[in-house]
Specification:
Elements: E1 7-11, H1 26-36, E2 41-45, H2 50-56, H3 60-63, E3 68-71, E4 76-79, E5 82-86, H4 89-93, H5 95-109, E6 122-124, E7 129-131, H6 140-153, H7 155-166, E8 172-177, E9 181-186, E10 205-210, H8 220-224, E11 229-232, H9 236-247
Parallel strand pairs: 1-2, 1-10, 2-3, 10-11
Antiparallel strand pairs: 3-4, 4-5, 6-7, 7-9, 8-9
Cofactor: Mg(2+)
Main location: cytoplasm
Keywords: Cytoplasm, Isomerase, Magnesium, Metal-binding
Length: about 250
């Protein structure tokens, strides 16, 4: 029988609780914070920073109601809206290697022809570099157009393959991030990193719900980790259905 103290439910955000970069629906928000949280401990784990996660949860007042918010794959940890710990990719890897990655990425992207290109191609975060061929400044329609184009031409996967070849042996991991980008981070700084923060809580069971669970997806490692029970979801509605089944909520 699940209980608050013995069971943790971890949720990816994009594609799992919300449509990519969109705000969570009121019904799902209330379901998580009322029905689910009353039964088990709940946490979010995302590659995004706290500001973006809070926006998608419909504000910081909502985000802080989750027991845990693990940002940037868990390398940045919040509990009850308070920053508990964080690590720095710059301190860990050094400026020289980071610049080599950024310079290579910019050069590679300059040779790609896409339906549209906008701004903010490289976003530096505490725990990772987020590289976006279409540019994070793209509109929703331009994002959707890139997603369709990428599904056919495998732009991001080819980019990941090139990065892996160029930086083999450097201790860096390259993974598909969300719908439109590639995440670059130190090997081991994937979403399993968040499990370090809850080890002292001695949860009997940890469930993880995510949509990018295929090899190369940023949910893959946590979904397949021996410490979790992984659930592959296809949409926020599917997430709710699977949670209801797990908790026997009718």
């Amino acid at each position: 029988m699940a209980s608050r103290k013995s069971t943790l439910y971890l949720f990816d955000v994009d594609g799992t609780l919300t449509k990519p970069r969109q705000v969570i629906k009121e019904e799902l928000k209330n379901f998580l914070l009322n029905e689910v949280k009353s039964r088990v401990t709940v946490g979010l784990v995302s590659g995004s920073d706290y500001v973006k996660i809070a926006e998608q949860m419909d504000g910081e007042a909502v985000a802080e109601k989750f027991d845990y918010v693990f940002c940037e794959n868990g390398v940045v940890q919040y509990r009850g809206g308070k920053l508990i710990s964080s690590e720095s990719i710059l301190s860990y890897l050094g400026e020289s290697l980071l610049q080599k990655v950024i310079n290579f990425a910019l050069g590679y992207m300059s040779k790609i022809e896409l339906p549209a290109k906008r701004g903010n191609f490289v976003e530096f975060r505490s725990s990772m570099i987020n590289i976006c061929p279409v540019g994070r400044s793209c509109t929703q329609s331009e994002r959707d157009e890139f997603v369709k184009f990428d599904s056919v031409h495998q732009i991001r996967q080819k980019f990941v393959d090139a990065l892996q070849s160029e930086f083999k042996g450097t201790g860096l991991t390259f993974a598909l991030g969300g719908q439109i980008s590639v995440d670059v981070f130190p090997t081991g700084w994937d979403k399993t990193y968040c499990l370090k923060h809850v080890a002292d809580q001695e949860f009997e069971v940890i469930h993880f719900f995510g949509d990018k669970t295929m090899p190369g997806g940023n949910d893959y490692e946590l979904y397949n980790d021996s410490r979790t029970i992984g659930h592959k979801v296809t949409s926020p509605d599917d997430t709710r259905e699977q949670v209801e089944q797990c908790l026997n909520i009718k």
